[in-house]
Automatic annotation (TrEMBL), chain B:
SUPFAM superfamilies: PTS system fructose IIA component-like
Catalytic reactions on record: dihydroxyacetone + phosphoenolpyruvate = dihydroxyacetone phosphate + pyruvate
Keywords from the UniProt entry: Kinase, Transferase
Keyword Protein transport in record: no
Gene3D superfamilies linked to this entry: Phosphotransferase system, mannose-type IIA component (3.40.50.510)
Residues passing through the membrane, by range: none
Pfam families: EIIA-man (PF03610)
Gene Ontology terms for molecular function: phosphoenolpyruvate-glycerone phosphotransferase activity
Full protein name: phosphoenolpyruvate--glycerone phosphotransferase
Organism annotation: Bradyrhizobium rifense
Assembly information from the UniProt record: Homodimer. The dihydroxyacetone kinase complex is composed of a homodimer of DhaM, a homodimer of DhaK and the subunit DhaL.
Length: 104, 133
């Protein structure tokens, strides 16, 4: 359901990209992955993350896929967001990373 | 443990060990939060290792949601007793309870994460089962 909407959104809106460095001590482990997924799910936009700017891209709304990225502290997390609420989504995702997922 | 957002899919954790079931439920609460109806059960009726149908039925009732309930189980009897419990539910509820083929701890956290975003039961089950995919 989410995926279908997100794919449609991605087709009509040019993707926004930005990156942020993971500052929290554990990196993108279980708990931060859950928070990132929960936040991503609040938006209509298709939201993807990657460890390098040209991908491979991972669906930020999938908790299992996000945990498999296993991004360590100090890694740069790239975001690619496309959809009607992409600006708000990107700002919120970057804020979460800058905040250290509320852990730092 | 009762629901704060009854629209989200409920999660039931069934382990042979009540300590594992309770611990997995603690992880769900800490990592995912309170937005998901959650219940756990473990141990046989004498307090030993095992599972029992009555306990599972009670847990389903506690975690009940109109959106349905996803059950995470550990080994053998937990699965067969859960299936038996589902069969004993009133007919209108039976189709809204699914046993997931996923590791009990990881599956519970992932299923609850999916549920907390408002995903339907089928998506919650699919996400938990991605661990074996």
């Amino acid at each position: 359901m989410h995926d279908a909407n997100a794919n449609r959104a991605a087709q009509t809106f040019a993707p926004l990209t930005a990156s942020a460095v993971l500052v929290n001590p554990v990196g993108l482990h279980a708990r931060p992955s859950v928070k990132l997924t929960q936040l991503a799910k609040r938006f209509t936009a298709k939201i993807e993350i990657a460890l390098v700017a040209d991908g491979p891209w991972t669906d930020a709304k999938s908790p299992v896929k996000v945990m498999r990225v296993k991004a360590p502290q100090g890694a740069t997390l790239h975001f690619r967001v496309a959809g009607p609420d992409s600006e708000a989504a990107l700002a919120a995702m970057l804020a979460l990373v800058h905040d250290g997922f509320g852990e730092a | 443990m009762s629901s704060l957002r009854p629209g989200n899919v409920g999660i039931v954790i069934v382990s042979h060990s009540p300590k594992i079931a309770e611990g997995a439920a603690d992880m769900v609460r800490q990592m995912v939060g309170d937005a998901v109806p959650l219940a756990w059960t473990g141990g046989d009726v004498d307090g030993g290792l095992g599972t029992n149908v009555a306990g599972i039925l009670e847990a389903i009732e506690t975690a009940w949601s109109p959106a349905g309930v996803a059950i995470l189980v550990d080994l053998g009897g937990a699965e067969t007793n859960s299936e038996m419990a589902v069969e004993m539910l009133p007919e209108d509820r039976r189709a809204r309870v699914l046993v997931c083929n996923a590791p009990v701890v990881e599956g519970a956290v992932i299923a609850a994460t999916e549920s907390s975003g408002g995903s339907p039961l089928a998506a919650v089950k699919r996400s938990a089962e991605e661990f074996y995919a």
